[in-house]
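Quick one, tokens below:
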């Protein structure tokens, strides 16, 4: 078990990699408990849930909306949930995003924690305090940054994860390698088969490395004014693909990283050989490297991205494997590139 502390001005979040879910009661405060989960996670683990008000969402992005948030507020009021209550999110990135958002906004904020159940969520989504919902398909447009008290990452819970969801998690793992950790990238190239087979030691090591990296980046830049932006590598494209084509987040990030790497080559940064390495590694994890739909309207969505600032958009590019940089690109230039892709 590896415990990583994420210290911010408001609290210290404990991230516990390898902590068994069955120990959850040891982490819960002596407070009235609300559990937010989804149907799939409940089906597999519901019998082990602690007692409390249970709110079970339909799986998928359609639950990450203001409408569902409003339904949840209604239930909390109906059950007289007060500020002394505690909210526990048990699920993947979608459950954690919405549970954190509810906990941060209901009655101006309750304390909360997560049991992170998908690979994507254990290495990324559940850590760092970005809690929010989509608006009309625009990703994560409404939300707050507020840290949970703990994040429990039990890799044995990944045994029940559908295989395609497992692969999608590796998009964010590879992202860390590409942006800040060339050693992790090498490690993944060397150990991809063990990782794909779910080798317990390798997997726990990978989750630990990613969780640690995310904690250090967030600790240094919680409000995303600098280094934290690097974590958005591939995401400006990804969010448009998710909105326009309903692509799952991990797959959209995979394609988005290849396109951002391609732009990096265009601007004389990373070498073509390194883009090939990135493409090969993504393919080893059964991830897509091309957008299988029309690029029409992709620019329209991308220009509404949170990283836009007036006439420019902050794009994360690669100087090398393991070294990302933020580059402000003129919107008009960016539009031409997207037109080329069309
Ligand atoms: N807040 C952040 O910093 C951040 C970072 C990255 C991604 N995200 C968000 O995370 C979301 C994607 O997360 P995700 O890929 O975990 O999606 P998800 O929550 O939909 O989980 C994927 C699927 O796996 C199922 N599942 C989860 N755990 C399971 C388990 N242990 N056994 C069986 N089934 C299980 C879920 O029901 C779902 O069908 C996106 O909305 C993305 O925007 C947020
Ligand atoms: Zn992501």
């Amino acid at each position: 078990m590896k415990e990583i502390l994420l210290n911010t001005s408001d609290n210290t979040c404990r991230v516990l990699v390898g902590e068994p879910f069955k120990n959850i009661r040891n982490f819960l405060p002596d407070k009235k408990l609300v559990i937010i989960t989804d149907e799939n996670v409940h089906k597999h683990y519901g019998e082990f849930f602690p007692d409390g008000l249970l709110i079970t969402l339909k799986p998928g992005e359609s639950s990450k909306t203001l409408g569902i948030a409003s339904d949840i507020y209604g239930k909390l009021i109906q059950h007289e949930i007060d500020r002394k209550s505690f909210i526990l999110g048990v699920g993947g990135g979608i459950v954690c995003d919405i549970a954190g958002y509810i906990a941060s906004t209901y009655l101006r904020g309750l304390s909360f924690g997560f049991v992170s159940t998908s690979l994507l969520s254990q290495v990324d989504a559940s850590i760092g305090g970005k809690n929010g919902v989509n608006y009309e398909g625009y990703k994560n447009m409404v939300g707050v940054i507020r840290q949970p008290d703990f994040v429990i990452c039990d890799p044995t819970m990944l045994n029940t994860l559908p295989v395609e969801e497992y692969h999608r998690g590796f998009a964010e793992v590879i992202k860390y390698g590409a942006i800040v950790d060339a050693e992790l990238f090498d490690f993944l190239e060397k150990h991809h088969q063990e990782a794909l087979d779910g080798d317990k030691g390798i997997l726990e090591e990978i989750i630990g490395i990613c969780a640690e990296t995310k904690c250090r980046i967030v600790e240094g830049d919680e409000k995303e004014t600098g280094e934290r932006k690097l974590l958005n590598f591939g995401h400006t494209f990804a969010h448009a693909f998710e909105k326009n084509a309903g692509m799952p987040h991990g797959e959209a990030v995979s394609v988005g990283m290849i396109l951002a790497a391609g732009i990096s080559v265009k601007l004389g940064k990373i070498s073509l050989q390194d883009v090939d390495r990135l493409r090969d590694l993504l393919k080893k994890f059964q991830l897509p490297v091309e957008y299988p739909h029309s690029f029409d309207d992709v620019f329209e969505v991308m220009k509404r991205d949170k990283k836009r600032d007036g006439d420019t958009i902050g794009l994360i590019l690669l100087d090398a494997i393991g070294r990302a940089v933020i580059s402000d690109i003129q919107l008009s230039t960016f539009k031409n590139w997207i037109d080329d892709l069309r």
